[in-house]
Amino acid sequence: MGHRIQLTTRYVTVDGTPWIPVMGEYHFSRDLPERWETELRKMKSGGINVVATYLIWILHEEIEGRVRWDGHRDIRRFIETADRVGLKVMIRIGPWAHGEGRNGGFPDWLQNLPIAHRSNDPGYLDLARRWYSAIEEQVRGLFHSADNPAGPIVGIQVDNELYDNGPHLATLRSIAEATGMKASLWTATGWGGAELPRGRVLPVYAGYSDGFWEESDTGWPAFGVMHFTYNTVRDDLTVGADLRDAPVDVDSKASLGADDPWPFVTCELGGGMAIAYHRRPLVDSDDIAALALTKVGSGSAWQGYYMYHGGHQVIGELSTTQESHETGYPNDMPVRDYDFFAPLGAEGTERPHFHKLRQQHLMLDAFGDAFATSATTIPEAAPGAPRWAVRGDGERAFLFANNHQPAIAALPAVDGVQFTVDFDDSTVTVPSAPFALESGTYFAWPLRQRFGTIEAVTATAQPITEIVTPAGPVVLFAATAGVPVELQIDGVDESDISGGDASSVGSRVVVTPHGVPGLDCRVRIGDTTLVFLDAPTAEAVWRGAVGGRDTVVIWHGSGWFDHEGFRVELPEADAELITIPAIAGTESEVGDPVFARYDVAAGTTRIELEAPAFSEAPLVPVRRAGSSQRFSAPIDDDFAALSPVEIRVRDTDLGGAEHAILELDWTGDVIRAYIDGELIADQFWYGRAFEIDLAPHRAALAEHPLELKAFAWSPSTRVYVDPRVRPAVTEPTLAIRSATLRPIRTRTFA
């Protein structure tokens, strides 16, 4: 990181160089500190370069006057770990944080004080000043500045989702600065028509594909369409709207943010979605990846995900710490579960969208300066025409198209698609012949972009990354489903091209690669090799340091770059790891001028445990509560009346595994897992497996079984579950179909 971070009206610069940050939210206090380094390395391996994290006040000062920074509360250790891994940090210091926390993160003692919270009430400001001073003492010396260019903290967000008190946000910044906090960037959430103090905070925005905060009788929320459509509207007026005292006039403020004199910065693109008792969205991986790429096409200069890494709600000394009806909030959240179906789950599981997003992040890293400096143009689209946009500078561009929406509102295929883009000196029509744009397809294609030593390449494939090798530059692309790969190249002769059929059309050469997309689908132009990958292989591309050398890795599985090289989770069947360049001192298959190949022996064996059977199917008592009178989750007293079932786990099952993920395939309403009476995990059923890492509980499991208590799914329940998985039953249903233990072992290639 350079000495100076600045903002233009369109993008962020570091020492004058355009930079598109990719930020992921990971709450240090909602995970085990011994896991932080590995999980942060996974985040970096996924293309994240800034980690954002809340400081949730109740977790640090549950008892007034006793401020704790020990164990999972150690913010300094977390930031120093992130710095060691190579990540910059955005701290979100509250005082109010939300984050589906109790009282929005306020300790009960603070919530109950007779003061005007989240205002310039002197009594509240005194407490905010004390809280900020405590934070500053912990992070002193870690701020990025001209005097400390190596400092990892590059930004500070004050409060969260405050809509109607810009002067208070300005005061919070002043208080934080007075305590000694410094930041290159000061931010505040701008959604919901927020009143922000001009020039004092950078507005940051959100975009989710679904929302647990909607009502239980809502299908796909109306706000979803805007996030899958190219537009200049930054503001989503619905995020957190259920917490407002008064509704926002949507019609009068619908375009808010479009004309801000700031770059378009996001901090809460939905990396998944939380589950509330009354409403349980089933967000798919392509929903997340398509939304993210649509935001890039709409001009995003900063991709920020919430959550990027899931976690666990903390059980405090005095109470649980999740948002709930008990504290007057509109939603009942799980006591422990905050997995969020994030790219990295609460137990570190790498979800499909971890890989899909990494493909985008590699593109932004390799070609970010071309994106950052380009303006967005959104053509007017006729009904039934494809959604598309162009980010370009008059000479070169990227073309974006999105034909994906969540399954409940899937877009139809579009026939006869062909795009024409005018440049200052010419016109590009791509592809040469119309094609059928399949439902669910989304992409970014280069138009007249530089790759390697080729001056102007237009392609019907999405660039991933470019690496220089002794044999010349190698550029990897992802082919687009249903679209033949076609290149249009300016300024070359047909004789310079190998690996494809070439023909001249005016001043351009049109090339169709030989073969189908995959590792062998290559076109060489001069000294540059272009490789066109099928979708599974494109999503298996990683980039990082192996043995101290910049390396592209192709690995179909879970893994991450550690301090030595690339660490793989050993697969269940023998597999192959591929690199560019070859790993020094390690034998590989010879004969391929581009890829080196290495065998990876199987090392994971799933263990099928006996799935316990419930003797009865109790139903959750139907209650409504909270500020919106939504359906309430069962409480401790309800669970106390249930008889548990047991799963016995032998120490030999856990073995020496680094993690041991128990996956429960079940159907019901709510389930809780206990060991020796301690609640370790829970889930509101919504169609996905219940995951628990048993490795941290190894000692307890040696003496006690894992106990499960659960309520049945009621055929008459009115809670929302996605229609694709909602049980079509006529009787209360509660069953665990399988219990699978997945011990995880790893190997590093260095």
TrEMBL record:
| Domain of life of the native organism | Bacteria
Pfam families named in the record: Glyco_hydro_35 (PF01301)
Which residues are in coiled coils?
none
Q: Which Gene3D superfamilies match?
A: Glycosidases
Q: Per its UniProt record, what InterPro entries does this chain match?
A: GH (IPR017853), Gly_Hdrlase_35_cat (IPR031330), Glycoside_Hdrlase_35 (IPR001944)
What family, per the record? Belongs to the glycosyl hydrolase 35 family.
Name the PANTHER family on file. BETA-GALACTOSIDASE RELATED
Record's protein name: Glycoside hydrolase 35 catalytic domain-containing protein
